[in-house]
């Protein structure tokens, strides 16, 4: 089971993306858990995460979160704005899985 | 606008966003308001229910008064004294940031604030005026929470402990570990209170209110400051950065204080003193599909959209847009870094701000009543609730929506046309 966390300001817009990603994951039969969190809860939720993706509108969080992410060995990146705008669950899921792969 | 200039602007804005968002005081302030928000909304719901339209004409005056009195404590215990909850939230979050015992940081901040608060009202002692715990005490509370959390952290770090004679169990001496930092921190605030009692201001609350809060809120309630805030929010979003998160941490204390003044006046049945409040911004600017009022853009796509790209986007963005979540539009249209779009993106919110301000200043539409409406409330209902159940508030939002549609029309038309032609070209290429 892989845990993918998406972070944005209130966890609202990323939760849209989460449901798309879940759809794709079920289609492909992947064993993943994906959820969205608000920015003030990110650090706590990161402990359970295998990969952390940040909404592009909150990309200034990356610097702050990188340190904690490094300690927990959680790969972290900002979601591609175009994929984000299209709520392209497949593209974001692929990125997340690639990041996981690269972190092994 | 060329690419170099855009790059320069982004390089200028990103560090600002980074600084403002990651500043520990501003983050604690923002999170502190987040702590208070559920309580604020609880109180707001009961203000709305207590002031149902036409109810005062349907039942007897006595029954109406009894009804209002029965519901009154809901908002009196939350919305009207929101300063208290914000202070606990700030103290908690700041102490958490220092990895201290956050709950102590929260209650120390509250106690420090209460030490500085007037404890007498019109000659009656042993009371705390609720006004001091709401709007009037907001700024003092915020500063107190910052300083008390810092002092508490400082004294904890010093690790002064009471030396217990040998044989005293360790648990006993540890129980004093929070005692010393708390005692020292609160003593500092007691000294401040005593010192201020010898000045003309009598209390620090009075001092902060007169010297800092009043001038700032007066400035913040004006049209120019509001337009600047709105433009900044839009500009940050134009670069794909969350404008509200960044700008609101500076403006929220002012906007909430103004909001609270209106609430007190609304509940007392007096004339509402302010036009610009938290809800002015949240309902009339954000509450129309999200920042930049993009519900208008979605509607416009349904009216004039011919290109597949925009039609798809409209379908994708509409369900979220109704609840004022608009990242699909911002990143999908795209609005970010789109030189064509920057004109309606900056102009429309300013025009709406001015229209709304004028409509309220001239009395056509009642100003916001001080209730906090969740920002995900759909348009029209949102304006109705924000103005204290006034239908004019909903109508104004509908009118503003039309204005935004008109401003966007030519720009979206150009965009749609270029997408459409591109799609057609791609199709003919495929078929040949």
Automatic annotation (TrEMBL), chain A:
A Pfam family hit: PTS_IIB
Record carries keyword DNA repair: no
Entry GO MF terms: kinase activity; protein-N(PI)-phosphohistidine-sugar phosphotransferase activity
Transferase recorded as keyword: yes
Residue spans crossing the bilayer: none
Positions where Phosphocysteine occurs in the chain: 8
InterPro entries: PTS_EIIB-like_sf, PTS_EIIB_2/3, PTS_EIIB_3, PTS_sugar-specific_EIIB
Protein known as: Oligo-beta-mannoside-specific phosphotransferase enzyme IIB component
Automatic annotation (TrEMBL), chain B:
Keyword Calcium in record: no
CC per GO annotation: plasma membrane
BP GO terms, sorted: carbohydrate derivative transport; phosphoenolpyruvate-dependent sugar phosphotransferase system
Signal peptide start and end residues: none
Membrane topology reported for the UniProt record: Multi-pass membrane protein
Record localization: Cell membrane
Domain PTS EIIC type-3: start-end pairs: 9-411
Keyword check for Transcription: no
Transmembrane segments: 33-54, 66-90, 102-121, 133-155, 175-196, 216-239, 284-304, 397-415
Gene Ontology MF, one: protein-N(PI)-phosphohistidine-sugar phosphotransferase activity
Coarse class of the protein's main subcellular location: membrane
InterPro entries documented for this protein: PTS_EIIC, PTS_EIIC_3, PTS_IIC_cello, PTS_Sugar-EIIC/EIIB
Keywords for the protein's UniProt record, in alphabetical order: Cell membrane, Membrane, Sugar transport, Transmembrane, Transmembrane helix, Transport
Pfam families listed in its UniProt record: PTS_EIIC
Record-linked PROSITE patterns: PTS_EIIC_TYPE_3
NCBIfam families, A to Z: cello_pts_IIC, lacE
Role this protein plays: The phosphoenolpyruvate-dependent sugar phosphotransferase system (PTS), a major carbohydrate active -transport system, catalyzes the phosphorylation of incoming sugar substrates concomitant with their translocation across the cell membrane.
Protein name from the UniProt record: Permease IIC component
């Amino acid at each position: 089971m892989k845990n993918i966390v998406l972070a944005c300001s209130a966890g609202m817009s990323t939760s849209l993306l989460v449901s798309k990603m879940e759809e794709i994951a079920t289609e492909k039969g992947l064993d993943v858990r994906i959820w969205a969190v608000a920015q003030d809860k990110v650090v706590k939720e990161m402990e359970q995460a295998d990969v952390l993706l940040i909404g592009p509108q909150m990309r200034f969080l990356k610097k702050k979160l990188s340190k904690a992410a490094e300690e927990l060995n959680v790969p972290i990146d900002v979601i591609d704005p175009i994929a984000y705008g299209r709520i392209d669950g497949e593209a974001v899921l692929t990125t997340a899985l690639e990041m996981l792969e690269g972190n092994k | 606008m060329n690419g170099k200039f855009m790059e320069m602007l982004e390089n200028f804005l990103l560090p600002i966003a980074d600084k403002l968002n990651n500043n520990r005081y501003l983050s604690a302030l923002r999170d502190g308001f987040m702590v208070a928000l559920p309580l604020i909304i609880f109180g707001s719901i009961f203000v709305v229910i207590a002031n149902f339209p036409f109810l005062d004409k349907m039942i007897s005056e006595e029954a109406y008064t009894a009804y209002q009195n029965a519901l009154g404590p809901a908002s009196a215990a939350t919305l009207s004294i929101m300063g208290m909850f914000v202070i606990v939230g700030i103290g908690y979050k700041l102490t958490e940031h220092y990895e201290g015992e956050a709950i102590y940081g929260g209650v120390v901040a509250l106690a420090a604030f209460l030490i500085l608060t007037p404890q007498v009202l019109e000659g009656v002692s042993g009371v705390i005026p609720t006004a001091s715990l709401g709007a009037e005490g907001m700024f003092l509370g915020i500063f107190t929470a910052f300083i008390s959390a810092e002092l508490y952290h400082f004294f904890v770090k010093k690790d002064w402990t009471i030396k217990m004679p040998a044989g005293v169990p360790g648990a006993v001496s540890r129980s004093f570990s929070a005692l010393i930092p708390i005692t020292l921190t609160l003593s500092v605030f007691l000294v401040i209170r005593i010192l201020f009692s010898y000045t003309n201001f009598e209390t620090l609350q009075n001092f902060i209110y007169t010297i800092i809060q009043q001038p700032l809120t007066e400035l913040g309630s004006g049209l120019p400051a509001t337009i600047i805030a709105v433009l900044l929010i839009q500009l940050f979003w134009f670069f794909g950065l969350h404008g509200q998160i960044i700008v609101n941490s500076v403006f929220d204390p002012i906007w909430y204080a103004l909001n609270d003044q209106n609430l007190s006046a609304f509940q007392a049945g007096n004339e509402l003193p302010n036009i610009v409040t938290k809800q002015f911004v949240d309902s009339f600017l954000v509450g129309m599909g999200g920042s930049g009022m993009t519900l208008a853009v979605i509607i416009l796509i349904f009216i004039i959209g011919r290109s597949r790209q925009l039609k798809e986007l409209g379908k994708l963005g509409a369900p979220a847009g109704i609840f004022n979540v608009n990242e699909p539009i911002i990143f999908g249209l795209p609005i970010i870094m789109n030189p064509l779009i920057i004109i309606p993106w900056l102009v429309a919110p300013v025009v709406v701000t001015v229209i709304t301000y004028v409509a309220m200043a001239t009395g056509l539409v009642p100003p916001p009543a001080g209730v906090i409406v969740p920002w995900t409330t759909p348009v029209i209902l949102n304006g109705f609730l924000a103005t204290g159940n006034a239908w004019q508030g909903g109508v104004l939002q509908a009118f503003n929506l039309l204005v935004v549609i008109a401003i966007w029309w030519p720009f979206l038309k150009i965009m749609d046309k270029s997408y459409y032609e591109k799609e057609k070209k791609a199709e003919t290429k495929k078929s040949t």
